[in-house]
Description:
Blueprint: H1 6-18, E1 22-24, E2 36-38, H2 40-59, E3 64-66, H3 76-81, H4 83-86, E4 88-93, E5 100-102, H5 103-129, H6 135-141, H7 143-165, H8 168-177, E6 194-197, E7 201-204, E8 212-215, H9 221-225, H10 228-234, E9 241-250, E10 265-275, H11 280-296, E11 305-309, E12 319-327, E13 330-341, H12 343-352, E14 358-360, E15 365-367, E16 370-377, H13 378-389, E17 390-394, E18 400-404, E19 415-419, H14 426-437, E20 443-445, H15 451-461, E21 465-469, H16 471-476, E22 478-483, E23 489-493, H17 494-505, H18 507-513
Parallel strand pairs: 3-9, 19-20, 19-21
Antiparallel strand pairs: 1-2, 4-5, 4-6, 7-8, 9-10, 10-16, 11-12, 12-13, 13-16, 14-15, 17-18, 21-22, 22-23
Helix pairs in contact: 2-13, 5-7, 5-8, 7-8
Amino acid sequence: MAANDENLFKKIVSHAKEYGFIFPSSEIYDGLGATYDYGQQGVELKNNIKAYWWKSMVQLHEDIVGIDAAIFMHPTTWKASGHVDAFNDPMIDNKDSKKRYRADVLIEEYIAKVEAKIEKEVSKAEKRFGDAFDREQFVSTNQRVVGYSEEISSINQRMKNAMDEGRLEGLKELIEDLGIADPVSGSKNWTDVRQFNLMFSTELGSLAEGASKIYLRPETAQGIFVNYLNVQKTGRMKIPFGIAQIGKAFRNEIIARQFIFRMREFEQMEMQFFVKPGEELEWYEQWKERRMKWHKTLGMGDENYRFHDHLNLAHYANAACDIEFNFPMGFKELEGIHSRTDFDLSAHEKHSGKKLQFFDPAENRSYIPYVVETSIGLDRMFLAVLTAAYTEETLEDGSERVVLKIPAALAPQKVAVLPLIKKDGLPEKAMEIFDELKFDMNCQYDEKDAIGRRYRRQDAIGTPYCITVDHQTLEDNTVTLRERDSAAQERISISDLASRVNELVSVNTLLRAL
């Protein structure tokens, strides 16, 4: 996949709408910016991603349990967490285009272009030297590549210094020194950088005069932290243990863009793992590897993932990295792994006046646990699956097809049951099979159009298997089982069908590989 493949991105967005995965929200009223509705196929894919995450995180770990906390929380929660005072993005406006951007993102996108230059040099050298090519040696000795690397390091250091010191003017200076232009107009006429708080606020109460200002949660993690003691006591949990949650979060993103990659209303899958102080970095490394394995087990291409360590650590972290995925717009954050220290529990203990410590009988002492967090955006994961799955193919007969090669365990529909023709008792036999399979998995029944066109429809929504009922079926109770990716077909007995297909599409196949 080429980085910044805008054409591919447009095709994915179009395909997602045409086949019932994602619709623009409130479309009959001309839509609402950066909000989307998941259609009939999309909601199934989304639920299957959630199931894979939940089962792997909670069901497979006896030391991790799940909760579902409320979206509304006491406003002091967000004071304690630092969101009221520090949940800001550095924004910069272009005076000519009137467009607004995140200053740090503009700089990161400039860095990505320099990184692309390095990869271009590496690719050229790889073709030139073939099997004898030593990437590490080339990157460390090639004068042009070394220059690019030093430029990236210098930019990163200047940005880190400006962010750490809260010097917004330093970010503007860096943008101007790098000659960064507005992506829309090409103008370099920038305003000063300003901070913009991302939380949505509303009022709680029946009368506006007596209402209290509260917030839509900007992350799901705080619902876990404020329930830490409830879960620990009622579950008799011992350190180390984790609490997982899937839920909606809301951020007033000024630059909500790139389809479902960055939205104002989104869904997170988060797990907070509570550990003994001093052991957090060891657990941080463990969770990095576990989470990367979870992603790669899907078989969407190991080369599409990479770790990116944070240079600018959040105020609560002593280590942090992202798992980045190769989206059509390049490598971008898919999941974050953070060592949050004891910042959150200590802050909530201070602001609530409640003791949030764990008594360790082995050490005969109490302490506030440290936390290692894994946080993945469900919508971004959805987009990653679509990106990896979308395939255009030219077949042997010269015809073309678009196929979504979604991992079978995540596919919205597991099988389609198709009578070859709409007569001779074939539809009735096909419905018998459908009625039997529907208790175990999502199925579709389709009898309209020629069988080839029906195969194409199922390919386009990512259905991994099609079951074709023909005249031979009435004679010997066998059907044709067609596999989506290879289009290979085999004859199989109806009596073996349910167990065979279940084995092929079950999420347990993925879970056992973890």
